[in-house]
Design goal:
Chain lengths: 194, 194
């Protein structure tokens, strides 16, 4: 039996996206957003939604660029902090001891210590209501070499990304593998064609 | 040391969104998408990106509505199957033995057996390239009563949602809790104000 919870923003899991941008004076800022994801395969795009009240929103409108730095499990507290305070009132890099690095291909900084970085150029902006959605074309993805296995594939166990569960207990690690995509569902294809 | 992987759609984790829609004859269809997430808090909105070639894309353009049904770990194979074949060639509900139910508030079906359902009305459509992004205003969220704890909060362990890891090993369960959001980062606020 299902129970109605009303019109709420509930979806599981959401990512923990640390959004990097420069302000008008070139100072690096980061904030954490869970409202976003991949938006297109060609061109490769992400989307991320920010409130207009945030410092990052103004930065991204001006610079038309941002980065996404993905924290590992051991960096979840830093990522949580990035969502707690405004870059107008705090130097979040100084407070956490993390290092801003200029992205190679876009006009935005990323977090050196976080294992995966996505460099994005804004190609569309959509006003949805409280949040503005930025569509960023992915110009490059950079990953810590230690998160690649011997054959150059991403080792998601070493990457150890963080998931967010809205209105539940908060942040979670990835857990047990369930099975390969585009594969475990084939048992039902056999059923329909036999 | 970071290694460049090029312009690729890499973000961890992504959700496993089973999108429900009706075709022109009112037949229910479902497909699985990992490109999407929450897009706005007020009005509450989700976004999901689909290729124009899919049957679901045409259905959603016509009906201006869709649902998202979230599978639990034990339903990952069914969700994977929903992404393997087209609704033009298969009755995916019949193949999996799952049950389509008409949403209460929007013109789309959902998967009765999946524990969490989001009913969405399309309010914006964005052409991004290979994918079209649909912005759906959330009209209601429904959850299996067994996924609520005694005080009515979502029990994410019982919900047991599925995460997808692009270009990695596939589907994963949620793992160890890391800590509460808007809380574990406060250690850095103390550092900056003391």
């Amino acid at each position: 039996m299902k129970k109605s919870l009303g019109a709420k923003t509930l979806l599981y899991p959401t990512p923990v996206l640390v959004i990097g941008s420069y302000d008008a004076d070139g100072r690096p800022n980061v904030m954490t957003a869970a409202w976003g994801g991949i938006a297109c395969s060609r061109p490769p795009c992400v989307c991320v939604s920010l409130r207009a009240a945030t410092a990052s929103h103004g930065n991204i409108v001006s610079r038309k660029a941002f980065t996404i730095s993905l924290p590992s499990r051991g960096q979840a507290a830093e990522a949580d902090y990035f969502g707690l305070v405004s870059g107008r009132n705090a130097d979040k890099f100084a407070a956490t001891g993390l290092t801003p690095v200029a992205a190679e291909l876009v006009d935005a900084p990323y977090v050196a210590e976080f294992p995966l970085v996505v460099e994005c150029e804004v190609i569309q902006v959509h006003e949805l209501g409280l949040h503005t959605q930025f569509i960023g074309e992915i110009k490059d993805v950079k990953i810590d070499e230690g998160c690649l296995d011997a054959s150059g594939h991403i080792d998601v166990r070493t990457l150890d990304p963080v998931a967010f569960a809205p209105e539940a207990e908060g942040y979670f690690a990835l857990g047990a593998p369930i099975g390969p995509a585009f594969s475990i569902g084939k048992i039902f294809v056999a059923t329909t064609t036999s």
